[in-house]
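Notes from hallway chat w/ T.B., transcribed later so I don't forget. T.B. wanted the structure written out for a chain they're using in a teaching module, and asked if we could keep both sequence and structure tokens in one place. Agreed to drop them here.
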Amino acid sequence: MQKKLSRGKSVEYISSYKNTPISALTWKDNKPVTLLSTYAGKLPETIVKRFNRSTKSKIEVACPFVVTEYNRHMGGEDLLDSLIGRYKIKMRSRKWYIHLFYHFIDLTVVNSWLLYKRVKEEQNLPVQFELADWRKNIAYSLTKSGDFKNQRGRRSISIETKRASTRALAMHSTRAVRTDGVGHSQIRADKRGRCKFPKCNGYTWIQCNKCNILLCNSKTKTCFNRFHDE
């Protein structure tokens, strides 16, 4: 049927799923264009100008409403595809739904970052995270949230050696991790250092087993509890 359509003609089929109308439309431009939408359909049609190769002049052809809407918003879709393609999850699988699942994850991460940027701009605040850092923080929060380390005392030499080899990948705990209330136990650090709680100038031996940072915890300074509560 698509090959028999003349330029500017279209065929639409309408169905519904859970009381939601669905329009499947094929429109003949230079080539057949097929669109599926729950928002727009064929009507109302508009008139657009297209170049005719045989007459070497522009002609007017009918254009369905769903095509007009797609062209009006396609800049946002192209930008979204570009952002997803920068740091796309690459998983090999022969099952189509696996690719669809990871695409939705990429889509959710990018949309959350765009909303984060919009909120910062509305509040006239600087954007602290670019897309790559945003993905890193989400991944770090998901892998650390709810994690529990049954570890007491000084760390072994083997763990110290491993940490030194991966020091470039270390990240500060995100708010989701430090406030999850799981596995944040106090251990004695190998070396006394400055407390990492904001505006605290104290020195301490106490370190959080999960967050891996030094925090004061005494009668006068409760940085450890405040850091994991705020």
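Follow-up for T.B.: The helical segments are 65-86, 96-122, 131-144, 157-165, 175-178, 223-229. Might be a good example for the class.
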